[in-house]
């Protein structure tokens, strides 16, 4: 996936993952890869998590792990939920506009 395109959506995608389930960084990376974001690594995701924390969209706290060291779990804040709702609407509008221009994508090209 083109990195400039990814920059426009990754915050919303990560917030959506966190909204659905309080989670930690490695789980977020695995969820992203499982859903087609193959280039995402922990080295890419952790700075994004720090940025989202600074903006007040998420908070993190350490929890004991049954299978290893403590993990920092992230959860979405009210401000993050509001941003995510705005993201959904903006993405929907953008997706519709792009689809109007390019229509169905011919896979044979």
- Report helical residue fraction: 55-70%
Element order: H for helix, E for strand: HHEHHEEH
State the CATH topology: Arc Repressor Mutant, subunit A
CATH second-level architecture: Orthogonal Bundle
What's the β-strand tally? 3
Unreliable runs = none
How big a fraction of the residues is strand?
15-25%
Structural category: alpha+beta
Pfam family, one: PadR
Protein name: PadR family transcriptional regulator
InterPro entries: Metal_resp_DNA-bind_regulator, Tscrpt_reg_PadR_N, WH-like_DNA-bd_sf, WH_DNA-bd_sf
What brief labels describe this structure?
Tscrpt_reg_PadR_N, alpha+beta, Arc Repressor Mutant, subunit A, WH-like_DNA-bd_sf, about 110 residues, WH_DNA-bd_sf, three-stranded antiparallel sheet, about 15% strand
Structural commentary:
The protein is α+β, with helices and mostly antiparallel strands and 109 residues long. It has a single domain (3-102), classed as Arc Repressor Mutant, subunit A. It is 59% helix and 17% strand. It is built from five helices and three strands; from the N terminus they run H-H-E-H-H-E-E-H. The protein has helices spanning 3-7, 10-20, 25-34, 42-54, 78-102; strands at residues 23-24, 58-65, 68-76. A three-stranded antiparallel beta sheet has the order 1-3-2. A hairpin with a 2-residue loop joins strand 2 and strand 3 (68-76). Helix 3 (25-34) packs across helix 4 (42-54). The chain is globular, with a radius of gyration of 16 Å. 15% of the residues are buried. This is PadR family transcriptional regulator. It holds the Pfam family PadR. Residues 14-85 form the Transcription regulator PadR N-terminal domain.
């Amino acid at each position: 996936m083109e990195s400039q395109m990814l920059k426009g959506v990754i915050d919303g995608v990560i917030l959506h993952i966190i909204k659905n389930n309080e989670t930690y960084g490695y789980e977020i990376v695995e969820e992203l890869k499982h859903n087609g974001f193959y280039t995402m690594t922990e080295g890419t995701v952790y700075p994004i998590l720090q940025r989202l924390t600074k903006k007040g969209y998420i908070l993190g706290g350490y929890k004991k792990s049954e299978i290893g060291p403590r993990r920092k779990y992230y959860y979405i804040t009210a401000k993050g939920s509001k941003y995510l709702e705005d993201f959904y609407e903006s993405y929907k509008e953008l997706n519709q506009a792009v689809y109007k221009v390019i229509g169905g994508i011919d896979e044979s090209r």
